[in-house]
Amino acid sequence: MAKYITPAVTPLTPEGMIDERGASALYEHLIAGGVDAVLVLGSIGEFFAVPQEQKRQLISLAMRRVAGRLPVIAGTSDMLFENVVSLSEYALAEGADAVIVVPPYYFRLEQEQIEAYYDALASRIRGRIYLYNFPDRTGYSISAETVKNLALRHENIVGCKDTIAGMDHTRELIKAVKPLRPDFEIYSGFDDNFAHNVLSGGDGCIAGLSNVAPEVCSRWVRAVNASDWNEAAAVQRTIDRLMNIYSVGSPFIPFIKRAAALRGLPVGDTVSFPFPSVTKEQEQRLADILSSEGLLG
Q1: What is the CA radius of gyration of the chain?
Q2: Which of 82, 163, 183, 274 is the most exposed place for a label (fewest CB within 10 A)?
């Protein structure tokens, strides 16, 4: 069955601390909207700018607030290997269903080095692990052959988020891994690839618009799972128009937060420095996009 997993934004106070009220409201919004799982501390969750102790605070908060109503995946990526292991162990002990880890960035890694990295993680982490391929941020891609090798060696490596705009690479992952390990989950990282992913044999997407419009995304999942292709096509067109939110400004995280706030969520404007603030003009553009899809008022 196809799934739509939300990589949740991280609400922050004006002082840059975890906003527990905003985060709790966001999780309730996602549960009510019908998404299939929540990922905390992904890229859109600003994992790269959240200190370790605040990461632990947010993971614990998510586990308490979600309280078993949805699976929770914890992003535990860090440039330091031992920090990844420590945070992963903490998240799993708190009750997280899995962790997701992007490989080290800044220096380009060769495929054998990527395999060695995840081999070591899989041997140290006693729980489910998702690979996270995001070449626009790491500077390199995890190849389909590497994913296949890791999936065949480690039962606790259970899936991959493939954040690439097109479907070419994701399709190769599906072709390489699924025939040998059908339970291995392969997700796209862009909302508009959801249906294409599933039709190619994947499992859906882990993508940011579901912070703003979870009810639209879950409607899409229901349509695809029911093979209601007229409805699925209608939602695809809605999502395609909502993708304009990502182009209002860059990086897009402040604009996802403001779009969620426009829908009534207590998600403040604070983002990691030096991300931009949302201007009045940009806020109006966001409001126009949401209003045109019936998502305001």
Answers
A1: 18
A2: 274
